[in-house]
Amino acid sequence: MEKKTDVQVMLRAMEPEDLDVLYQIENDRSLWNIGSTNVPYSRYALHNYIADAKNDIYIDDQLRLMIENEAQEAVGVIDLVGFDPKNQRAELGIIIMRRFRRQGYAHAAISKLIDYTRNVLHLRQIYAVVDVGNAVSYHCLSSLGFSDGSILKEWLYCDGEYKDARIMQLFIEKG
């Protein structure tokens, strides 16, 4: 995977104008194997989700941010879920829209999120669950300092079969 170090992104709160992007991402069946979603979302449900989100991880128990490129186009979504304030950790999730993949946006967005978790949220660690066959995500996370952890046997159900997943962790050093 080519790492583009000159890629700049902005992470921002969801806006009502993001409804079409979220609708496209949440209803892309090819992405359902990497998350816990297995049903389509209506525009109404997503509209209410955007309207009701406080964008405060302590209130929502998650943080979902839009990834925007230099041209101010939404290129994807990045989030922290499974927030555990007692143990100061959360699970990383990221989706880059198909036409923007392999251009360095994921690397840039995760890097920004790491800075945010270090300097604002003061988390001790973030982790990701990655399909063992997803070499692109594995290399992206490894290049950002995530360590390879345990293999979770038959953790993900996709296309009628169970697949192994790996836990990748990043311990965040205080800067």
Describe the structure in your own words.
This is Acetyltransferase. It comes from Prevotella fusca JCM 17724. With about 180 residues, the protein is of the alpha+beta class. The chain has one domain (about 10-170): Aminopeptidase (3-Layer(aba) Sandwich). The chain is about 25% helix and about 35% strand. The protein contains 5 helices and 7 strands; from the N terminus they run βαααβββαβαββ. The protein has helices at about 20-25, 45-50, 55-60, 105-120, 135-145; strands spanning about 10, 65-70, 75-85, 90-95, 125-130, 145-160, 160-170. It has a 7-stranded mixed β-sheet, sandwiched between helices. Strand 6 and strand 7 form a beta hairpin. Helix 1 (about 20-25) packs across helix 2 (about 45-50). The radius of gyration is 16 Å and the shape is globular. The mean pLDDT is about 90.
Indicate the proportion of strand residues.
25-35%
Number of strand segments:
7
Number of distinct helices:
5
Oligomer: single chain
Count of the separate structural domains: 1
The amount of helix comes to 25-40%
Order of strands, main sheet, comes to 1-2-3-4-5-7-6
Stretches where pLDDT falls below 50 for ≥5 residues? none
CATH architecture: 3-Layer(aba) Sandwich
Q: Over the alpha carbons, how many angstroms does the gyration radius reach? A: 16 Å
Shape: globular
Structural class: alpha+beta
- Ends apart, CA distance between termini: 28 Å
